[in-house]
Design brief:
The chain is α+β, with helices and mostly antiparallel strands. It has seven helices and six strands, in the order αααααβββαβαββ. The protein has a six-stranded mixed beta sheet with strand order 1-2-3-4-6-5, sandwiched between helices.
Length: 248
Amino acid sequence: MSDLDQVSHIMSSADSGSGDKKWNVLMERLRARASYNKQLFQRLNAIVEGRNVLLKFDASEQQSLWATYWKDDAFRSKVKSAVHMSAEKNHALSNHNFFEVPDNPDIIMQHAMMTAEDSITGNVVGFMEIAILQQDSCATDRDTNQDNSKFGPVICNLAVCQEHRRLGIASHLLKVGQRYVKSHWNLDSKKEMGLYVDENNVAARRLYRKEGFDGPRLRSTGRSLNVDPASKLIYMKMPLKETSPISS
């Protein structure tokens, strides 16, 4: 099983509960797994194409790196596909005209996908993404003016496989994610890192509070894949404080 399949399996199991064997739950899990797989595949395609453009970039030419990216039809098309395929509808590029270079691309285009692996088997046992999304907002009431000041790093799709829970993997991913963003993304010092969590997920809320996230602010939203439109998501946040370098 590829890393992509393993991640999709972990995320779909987290959505529906890996221990439930009812037929309708199993079918929903398969649909969710296929959807996650497609979304992640599109994002990886955009990343790979971006690396290809970077390899061809000539710094001696009188053109910025982002102008070079946006002149490449394949890169621009794959980024557009990844954004439109995403379940996260409050992305900074959700309403963007892809014929134009976005404002503040050094921030808006940031995206991180992180995995935790079993040191013995090499299997993926945990996953997390960090995307530039509109903070403290939801798909039904977001501001569509694309004011970049409203966007910042948001943790999404944090999941750990059932057999490896309660081992500190989620906590480690959160810590590494914060350090990565602080050390690699050129963000305003006043920026916060945010996340959305279902109000009924007591264990997750407890974990986030333990890791320094503060909240809640209650919103009704249909923002995310496989979440009931009537569900309540709580927005939690923490300041992007100075952190020590990431250890290998």
